[in-house]
Design goal:
GO biological process, one term: cobalamin biosynthetic process
CATH class: Alpha Beta
CATH architecture: 3-Layer(aba) Sandwich
Strand content: 5-15%
Number of domains: 1
Bound molecules: nicotinate mononucleotide, 5,6-dimethylbenzimidazole
Shape: elongated
EC number: 2.4.2.21
Helix content: 40-55%
Protein name: Nicotinate-nucleotide--dimethylbenzimidazole phosphoribosyltransferase
Keywords: Cobalamin biosynthesis, Glycosyltransferase, Transferase
Function: Catalyzes the synthesis of alpha-ribazole-5'-phosphate from nicotinate mononucleotide (NAMN) and 5,6-dimethylbenzimidazole (DMB).
Radius of gyration: 21 Å
Length: 379
Amino acid sequence: MTDTPAPPEQPEHGAAAAPEGAGGATALVDLDRLSQSVRRPDEGARTAARERQGALIKPAGALGRLEELSVWLAGAQGASPPRPLERVRVVVFAGDHGIARAGVSAYPPEVTAQMVAGILAGSAAVSVLARTLGASVRVVDMAVDADTPPEVSAHKVRRGSGRIDVEDALTRGEAEAAFRAGMQVADEEVDAGADLLVPGDMGIGNTTPAAVLTGVLTANDAATVMGRGTGIDDRTWMVKCAAVRDAMRRTRAVLGDPVQVLATGGGADIAAMAGFLVQAAARRTPVLLDGVVSGAAALVGQRVSYRAVDWWQAGHLSTEPAHRKALDRLSLVPLVDQGLRLGEGTGALLALPLLRAAQATLAEMATFEEAGVSGPAAG
Ligand SMILES: O=C(O)c1ccc[n+]([C@@H]2O[C@H](COP(=O)([O-])O)[C@@H](O)[C@H]2O)c1
Ligand SMILES: Cc1cc2nc[nH]c2cc1C
């Protein structure tokens, strides 16, 4: 077993690029510093894992995608074989979106706060899947348009992000504060021992900003990235398409500036998720991405740090067309495709057994030598 130490330039626990001090919304996010703090996964551990895969009692390559996953996990942990995942944490970033009031969803905006309560009560899909699959759930209210319990609302930047077809989702200061909050949440979770992070989302209307961000960051037009979200009808589809088109036009104008992209066409929940994803990478913690919202946040994260993508796997493929476009741009291949379009982190959780299977097979199978099994026929 190799246990390769982290490279010396690896930032200390919690120190990566988060500006110190009170400052509130005025403290800037130093994106260059954050990007520098994201290092590559451990190549030594990856090589050792690949070699061990080759020595296990199975035809070479016969565990398919599990082999690649095990190597990825070894690289992220800096250990071959990788350790079992013991503290898998889903963080659901919740927020309302002004665009929902334009009639782009099949459900009313008050569902966001009601579902936050449902997740906290342990009765939502993510709660059930987390219990079933061995994970725990945290909710972070970034912009729910209602009061939520103090332990959930500590990072809240406002009640509802702006209506992105006609105004910015957030001020620059709010976008920075939300991004930094996501970084801080990642730090808190890693410091508490998380060995795998899953971003989840809850917010009526959030597939509209997700489509907008994906459209501008992958250079696709509104109709191509548009999806039916919670299940909208054709009339609502037309309204949503115009909203996505208009918000994309506004967001395209700030494309070179990732934080401004989040401020103009995103929202507080997505901004926090982007900060969370990049900081997870800076803290050398693997991530299973969920659906179209985390895909959009990941695209912004990729703009901040292209290396961050090495720390992420695509848990699943959502039915939202923007999700496939985002994953293509991230060069990620989804682990499962079960037609989910729920968010909350549910699709990513479905992939967790695959990751556990990848870890266990690499760690626990015998080698040809240990088991006295003959290797490939010579010649
Ligand atoms: O994860 C996905 O790909 C996904 C696809 C469609 C809908 N959702 C969830 O549904 C809500 C957004 O849908 P909508 O139609 O209100 O934009 C939000 O709470 C998301 O978590 C999520
Ligand atoms: C009920 C409901 C639950 C959700 N979970 C995530 N998005 C959702 C949207 C709705 C409408």
